[in-house]
Amino acid sequence: MTPGSLNALRRDRELTALADGERVDLVVAGGGVTGAGIALDAAARGLSVALIEAYDLAYGTSRWSSKLVHGGLRYLAKGDLALAHESAVERGILMTRTAPHLTRALPQLFPLYRKTSRGQQAFIMTGLLAGDGLRRAAGTPASVLPRPRSIPAAEALALAPGLSPQGLRGALLAYDGALTDDARLVVNLARTAAARGAKILTKVEALRLDAESVLARDRLTGQEIEIHARQVINATGVWAGELAESVRLRPSRGSHLILAAGAAPIGATSVNVPVPGENNRFVFLLPQPDGRVFVGVTDEPTDGPVPRVPSVPESDVDFLLEVASTAFTRPLTRDDVAGSFAGLRPLVEGGGRSADLSRKHAVVTGADGVLTVVGGKLTTYRKMAEDAVDAALKRSGLLAGPSTTSRLPLLGATPRHRLSTVDASPRLVAKYGTEAPRVAALGEVDPELGLPLFDGAEISAAEVVWAVRHEGALDVEDVLERRTRLGLVIPDAEAARGRVQELVDKSLAGLA
Ligand SMILES: Cc1cc2nc3c(=O)[nH]c(=O)nc-3n(C[C@H](O)[C@H](O)[C@H](O)COP(=O)(O)OP(=O)(O)OC[C@H]3O[C@@H](n4cnc5c(N)ncnc54)[C@H](O)[C@@H]3O)c2cc1C
């Protein structure tokens, strides 16, 4: 085991120490990208930190994103230059320094049809050029994110052969950042924090917070534990209001569909289809490494109790299929849909339409002294974490240096130009970076582990063993839903379930 290994054994040991009265500098409630980012920021400054997560790392919104590492263009369109710049800077940090292995440049195609007015075309191109200005201002080289350009119809069709050629005049081509898997970023952050001593405790729910203690319940045993800290931080995303009365959120649901491989032939290029009648709104098709395509995204305010796992309403399915179909030769139907998922954006309450609400983050101090950090987005998690830890230091009087995370590569990271030299398949390198050969080696030592989980699966048994030994997976659902993402398509999850159960049981027994 390495210092960055998370597993059941380590969890038991660390939870027992806290239950026995060990006091830490910070306790963070919530194991999404924000909480994991805070744990890393704090641990990297030399603070002692415990993160408690009610279910699993990336259980909440962080696994339901579009997986884009935004350059901030949409914030620029709304006149928020500071937020746009922050987003572009954070994108550059992720793609060039902290997580080149988990990110890639995603080509984005904006098809231009005869019905697209010249005004609309100029509007999009102006936006893309401004976005490129943000890239330059953030210091991200064009070798990482190439400049936008106009391309002829033939080139657009070569990139995305499923596009309807009828009336296609050409296209605009730009680049933004994308993550292979959002849940993997969260797990990686948590492991990098653990490598610096952070206690990362999943299946531990915060029941009550105050400034310096948390009443928590171990969901595996039912035991209640009082955890003591110099400062408590609430990073429970869309659930933050359940633990902090003063925090008011207005969640907004975003749905995605998963199209079966081949249903919308777009190669490795994402396609942005304008929503008819709207100026600056697109439905986008995002190619996935397994050949499937995500179609997203809706943006609908939701009221009432916050569900643990949001569902996709039929109206969202209709909307996404209808808009996406306008750009394709063959209209997309429900038969093309292999799965779907929805997430809730933790937007800070304000007036106006949800699509127009700010994606800014906020660090709020409650009357009880608890710090809550909400809002923001995946791309800017690092800055949110830095701001939250700065606020915690100020409030608690703890002493530590400034944040170092903008220069701290995550586990498995290596400069982008070296990724191709890592001795493992590109699929494994995109998941595990420089750790990929260690995952592959499990399958070399025991050939059974080198086999796929089921016929036609890319994921091998070795990846399940790795998840239990090093990535904090404690049960089958952790593996299916968040370490492998097989759960996104129900027949895949069911085909793998039996074998995953065997592997999880055996791996857990092997830890003892
Ligand atoms: C549809 C959609 C698409 C998006 N696309 C993008 C995108 O492409 N790019 C981008 O940058 N951003 C995107 N975002 C935004 C981004 O996903 C979120 O801002 C971000 O994931 C929020 O992370 P978080 O850690 O604050 O919250 P969460 O990920 O929800 O984490 C909160 C955690 O707290 C835990 N928790 C709750 N209650 C308790 C408790 N009592 N005790 C302990 N733990 C608890 C939950 O289980 C959860 O794991 C998107 C959001 C949505 C909804």
UniProtKB/TrEMBL annotation:
Sequence ranges assigned to domain Alpha-glycerophosphate oxidase C-terminal in this UniProt record: 404-508
UniProt-listed Enzyme Commission number(s): 1.1.5.3
Keyword match Flavoprotein: yes
Keywords annotated in UniProt: FAD, Flavoprotein, Glycerol metabolism, Oxidoreductase
Residue ranges occupied by any FAD dependent oxidoreductase domain in the UniProt entry: 25-382
Entries under SUPFAM superfamilies matching the protein: FAD/NAD(P)-binding domain
UniProt-recorded Gene Ontology molecular function terms: glycerol-3-phosphate dehydrogenase (quinone) activity
Catalytic class of the enzyme: oxidoreductase
Cofactor(s) this protein requires: FAD
Record keyword Translocase present: no
Family listed: Belongs to the FAD-dependent glycerol-3-phosphate dehydrogenase family.
Descriptive protein name: Glycerol-3-phosphate dehydrogenase
Lineage, broadest ranks: Bacteria, Bacillati, Actinomycetota, Actinomycetes, Pseudonocardiales
